[in-house]
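Practice problem: predict the structure.
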Amino acid sequence: MEDEKLSQEQIDEKMINDAFQELLDRYLESRHRKKVEIITKAFHFAKQAHKGVRRRSGEPYILHPIAVARIACCEIGLGSTSICSALLHDIVEDTDYTVEDIENLFGPKIAQIVDGLTKISGGIFGDRASAQAENFKKLLLTMNDDIRVILIKIADRLHNMRTLGSMLPSKQYKIAGETLYIYAPLANRLGLNRIKTELEDLSFKYEHPEAYAKIEEKLRATQAERTHVFEEFTAPIRAQLDKMELPYRIIARIKSPYSIWNKMQTKHISFEEIYDILAVRIIFTPRNEEEELNDCFNIYVSICKIYKPHPDRLRDWVSHPKANGYQALHVTLMSNEGQWIEVQIRSERMNDVAEQGFAAHWKYKAGGEGEDEGELNKWLKTIKEILDDPQPDALDFLNTLKMSLYSSEIFVFTPKGEIKTMPQNCTAIDFAFSIHTFLGSHCIGAKVNHKLVPMSHKLQSGDQVEILTSKSQKVQPAWLNFATTAKAKAKIQAILKRERKEQQQNGEDILSAFFKQENVEYSDENIRKLCNLHELKTPEELMVQLGQKVILLGDADRNELKERPTATSWKKYISFAFGGNKQKTEEKAETASPLQIDNKKIIKLTPDAIQKNYIIADCCKPIPGDDVLGYIDDNNRIIIHKRQCPIATQLKTSFGNRLLAVKWETGKALSFPVNVYIKGIDGVGVLNKVTEIISQQLNVNIKKLTIETNDGIFEGHIQLLVHDVDDVNTICNKLKKIDNIKRVTRIENFDDATAD
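Answer:
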């Protein structure tokens, strides 16, 4: 037994040392200054601190910090300071060592980064508090101190996602949902394209394992065909580039499984209908630094002589880099087989920036690690402004910020010709707030390309915008309906909140003076009477409306305050206080009936349980066979959502501790309503064939049916009662075989219009 124990220790020791040696080897291959001594010191310190601790998968804990350090070094391109911080990132949280200990041993810079990482990890899940949103705030606050905090946090999340298999299913959904909601867009905004794609794919793999496996299988099956198209398409391009005598390489870029699935969901199309799975990437080495941009455009011109370019699909990110530093020329060309193929032209430097984001800029600066100015700092400044005036609800804050994480960019000019980067779909009011809060809060409209437009006008790339203001203008709540940027929304909400506070204070003064004048006690009971009289839910609303002069106190209020409760009103009050509570208690007892949970903490949805214990969410209407999860709401009821439902996405991010893994076990016992959309060429007897297949051949009930015909094209919405997803697939496959029917797809709501 002792020998076995010893050998296990020796195995662990070898595994740990091999992993660290691999990290060192990869670090020594990088362009950073070689500070092996401090990295080795950090490794030994972390190894000792985590001694004897194991991860859920059973492996020694120290392998996690080593893996995070390796991602930071090899995949993000960071140097010794970051590698040390990654090795030490869990020490303060998981052991008795403090930030001061780290500072004494490794200096203030590493201590500051470790402290930032520790702050993010902290935070206790409250019943209603959105712990992840709070953590995200902390995360962004630390970015202002050192961008490396967030880069290491992304590396930490990537390793957690790579090892997610050892977690319980409900935990997997929480972490995967959070990753898609927060970390993938953040990685994208920081230019970490490869990491963003992997985070999305891993989240997709754990949330929808069957859909992921199907797409992987289809990608494998169509690989040979794609290779043939790639070879045929690139052969003349290679010949042309050889003549230019520039060192280059051409690679095939395949759309990621998550991107494919996402497109299938949003466009309601099948895998076979996605035509941009293959893109071509030309990566070249310029003749010298000054000629880099010229070489890009020379390659573009030469390949457009071979294939015809799409007139609307040239994307010039070379002259105007994206906010995350991304540079490339994107052009879509028509192949000889009649297929549009996107070609991305980048230099080696641009490719490094595209893959490694801001960290790659350090690679091209003298002295290794350094700070990057420009667009990143602009973005950090915007975040800092939002954080300085945070939303009362953490989730509002997260949603507001997600808008600026996900947005594509356009370029807008000021009247003096300065260029501003703005998010796509932004409006004139967003532009006003991006320049100055005063300009935004007094905006009455704008001139776009010298034409007068309202402040809700959507801006296009290349617009020249002049903001018009008036001193008498005040911020209106309606502005929130057309403000789209995080900064504008945050500022509008902050101003409205401040004004509301002032109005509430004025209202309190007015009410206090009225009570004094009428010789009535200033009490909660009397305030509640006035709330009931004016049909308002809270005293705050009453104060605000008094302050705004919407409510003017008069005789009705005097009578209400001086009226004594009658027998009837007492009776009402008693029944409300006692009878109502009894009923609620009974309801609660009924909903909290025993749940059938197996030892893996997976709830089984049996027909009996669905009818008694669970609520099928109305927002996404899941049916047996859909990937679902359970959520325990405030009333202790369990609500079943589809895993990709937008509401479920927010729940995963905010209330991860209330999620449950769920498994359908209904057999064919229950029927569920499902909506199907069909589209095709109109003809005699088409509707007859559709109803015959559904009702007679498949014996499925049609609950609702609408058909519209326009210029020879018909569109139909059918609501059916089915047992599960297999039934839906059978129906869709049968209907697709009818002549002239071009599209059949399941939709969420009966009236959804389905875009091609």
